[in-house]
Write a structure and sequence with these properties.
By secondary structure, the chain is mainly α. It is built from 18 helices and no strands. The chain has one domain: Na+/H+ antiporter like fold. Helix 15 crosses helix 17.
Length: about 400
């Protein structure tokens, strides 16, 4: 009798949730954020050691795609909850600082990575893709740590969210530019006009989405709250989650930006509703996200890591890329923060929070394979994957250290 594929999924999810609880508890026991324990447990469950998704008990069922999709849903809900925590008035004060810090951090990463790749003998095309792949910050890692430390609604936390929004848009612009230049072999007038259209599309979407979230979502929720039928059976949180998903969908479909950006914007809109309603939305959404989906996101980072297959010949390049990836964000974002009025400690804190790379970097690296600038097994390609997967693991430790005085 053939086994129902859902049964294998039940087993895998059970192991993932149990392991995430254990890993998170052990991390807290040693004074570290839960996310660090979840990331380490993910590596243990991945092909590096246990290879959970190819375990005999799964009877050959391929769960990679569905686990990845659940992870994407988890990070979307995480960014929605981050948006709910935003202090809008404080975030608005960070506009210029966020723009400068996000831009400098990304551009410095691209420059450093391209120079390093060129020194190792790679042409301008793979070097450009390497820089763009490492330019994008995965803000969810640092945001989760700051949430645990109770520091997300601080000046540095608001600057992180603003700079990450700039970083996300800039990274997508850079990868669009990289693909256009790579496909044409140079920067022609038609490609430049296409880039202008991409920028206009992104700008229009972000402005429109923010306007709709800012003015429309609070009015909608307050109107629905006056309807007794909606207030029953978790009606308000259900509508909030529905709109978070729709904002995520519109972000990629119409704006050309990451879905998590749309979910974050929706969260910012809902942060303006009455405190009792915001608490109701946050409580219900947190239960769904942190019980199941967010742990899957962090565990999935480790499930995608196979440290056994990494070639030793690529180790020097990987180590230098890793070092450059750390320095570029700390220096670039830190300088931007200093120019924006932060003191040296706050600038360092923001730079460290901008270190982790994630899903956007992996997508860019994979796109490099698709357009032919990378080759599977190439040292530069595998080094990029290792750096992208390692930076989220070291970030919680570094964030904890730079905020040590504020957390006791």
């Amino acid at each position: 009798m053939e086994q129902n594929p859902a049964v294998a999924l039940f087993f895998a999810l059970g192991v993932i949730i149990a392991a995430s609880r254990i890993g998170g508890a052990l991390a807290r026991r040693f004074g570290q954020p839960r996310v660090l324990g979840e990331l380490i447990v993910g590596v243990i469950l991945g092909p590096t050691l246990l290879d959970l998704l190819h375990a005999p008990l799964l009877n050959g069922t391929d769960l990679h795609e569905i686990i990845s999709q659940l992870a994407e849903l988890g990070v979307l809900l995480l960014m929605f909850l981050v948006g709910l925590e935003v202090n809008v008035s404080e975030l608005a004060k960070m506009g210029r600082l966020a723009l400068v810090a996000g831009t400098l951090g990304s551009l410095l990463t691209v420059i450093f990575s391209m120079i390093l790749a060129a020194l190792f003998g790679y042409g301008w095309q793979p070097a450009l893709f390497a820089g763009v792949a490492l330019a994008a910050t995965s803000v969810s890692i640092s945001a989760q740590v700051l949430l645990e430390l109770g520091l997300l609604r601080t000046k540095v936390g608001n600057a992180l969210l603003g700079a990450a929004l700039v970083d996300d848009v800039l990274a997508l612009l850079l990868v669009s530019l990289a693909v256009a230049v790579t496909n044409s072999g140079g920067a022609s007038s038609s490609n430049l006009s296409g880039m202008v259209l991409v920028i206009v599309r992104m700008a229009l979407y972000i402005m429109g989405a923010f306007a709709l979230a800012w003015f429309g979502l609070p009015r909608l929720i307050h109107w629905l709250d006056r309807m007794p039928s909606v207030k029953q059976s978790y009606g308000i949180p259900a509508v909030a989650l529905l709109l978070a998903l729709l904002f995520g969908w519109t972000a990629e479909t119409f704006g050309g930006v990451a879905a998590i950006t749309g979910a974050f914007i929706a969260g910012v809109g809902f942060s303006r509703v009455h405190e009792s309603l915001r608490h109701e939305i946050e409580t219900t959404s947190s239960s769904i996200a942190y019980t199941l989906l967010v742990p899957i996101f962090f565990i999935n980072v480790g499930l995608a890591t196979d440290l056994r297959s990494f070639p030793l010949s690529g180790l020097p390049l990987a180590l230098l890329l890793f070092l450059f990836a750390l320095v570029a964000k700390v220096v670039g974002c830190g300088l931007g923060a200093r120019w924006g009025g932060f003191n040296p400690r706050e600038a360092l804190q923001l730079g460290v929070c901008m270190i982790p790379r994630g899903e956007v970097g992996l997508i860019v690296a994979s796109l490099g394979l698709t357009v032919g600038v990378f080759q599977a097994g190439q040292a530069l390609f595998t080094s990029l994957f290792l750096v992208i997967l390692l930076t989220p693991m070291i970030t919680p430790i570094l964030v904890r250290q730079v905020f040590r005085e504020q957390t006791g």
